[in-house]
Design brief:
30% of the residues lie in helices and 23% in strands. It is α/β, with parallel strands linked by helices. The strands form 2 sheets. The protein has a 10-stranded mixed β-sheet, with helices on both faces.
């Protein structure tokens, strides 16, 4: 894990989130990119300098945040980027070979009933970049136990598990696999291949209507430091797919980070 990116919004949690990012990046000796993405819609040539002003203000804002961090020995680079959120994020992650995103649950929203705000929800649902959702005001701790919740073990992408493998190996963490049987499962969904089987320390099978319900039922038995789920249109976030924001009543994890892998299929 060589390159990690954080997209910064205007939340009051930004300082805490960035400190977590620094502490996490230090563990892997990874470079940390801290970016802010802005967009401008102009009607005339008189607005040509707006881009320069917004870029300068964004860089000043980011540098001010970084100045308050304990940066340790982490290589940090700040960037202010103009464009639409998802396209710009995908482009910069591709150009910089980003291995992982660190995401705040709410970068701009202050609604108490929201788990993922619109911006964070877009990043999680509309990109294919592995991401960790870090709870608000969460302080970095070593990851000793991971709960990996799946309703299908079919893995067709060779590198899909790479972030999970990196975390498990670096922290020597135990990996607990939770296989959730739903009414949509096929027989092959529970055939664990050699790659995944070699990682697992403990396996539990359960029957639930959704993967999330399976997590709610079993996570206390594992007491994980990290929950790992899979980003699919017909997967973990399926019931919340229509809207970018996700309400706490639909999904809410406040006690540990959530690693969201890109689709395994």
């Amino acid at each position: 894990m060589n390159s990690i990116l954080v997209a910064v919004g205007s939340s009051q949690n930004a300082q805490s989130h960035l400190q977590y990012a620094v502490d996490f990046a230090e563990q892997f000796e990874a470079k940390l990119y801290i970016v802010q993405i802005y967009n401008v819609y102009t009607m005339s040539g008189s607005m040509t300098k707006v881009d320069e002003i917004l870029e300068r203000d964004s860089l000043d804002f980011l540098n001010e945040l970084v100045s308050k961090l304990d940066t340790k020995n982490v290589d940090i680079e700040v960037k202010a980027l103009k464009g639409k959120l998802i396209k710009t994020l995908n482009d910069v992650c591709s150009n910089l070979n980003i291995d992982l995103l660190l995401v705040e649950p709410r970068t701009n929203s202050d609604k108490d009933d929201v788990y993922l705000g619109k911006t964070s929800g877009k990043i999680i649902k509309q990109t294919n970049i592995p991401a960790i959702i870090v709870p608000e005001n969460y302080v970095f701790e070593p990851i000793h136990s991971v709960l990996f919740a799946l309703k299908s073990t079919v893995i067709q992408k060779v590198d899909a598990l790479k972030p999970l493998i990196n975390i498990k190996e670096h922290f020597n963490a135990s990996l607990n696999l939770l296989l959730v049987k739903t009414s949509f499962n096929k027989t092959e969904d529970f055939v664990v291949n050699n790659q995944l089987d070699s990682l697992i320390d403990h396996k539990v099978e359960t029957e639930n209507a959704t993967t999330y319900q399976g997590v709610l039922e079993h996570h206390q038995a594992v007491n994980p430091d990290l929950l790992c789920v899979v980003r699919r249109k017909r997967g973990f976030f399926n019931k919340m797919w229509e809207k970018n924001s996700i309400l706490k009543r639909d999904f809410y994890i406040a006690s540990f980070p959530v690693l969201v892998l890109s689709g395994l299929k």
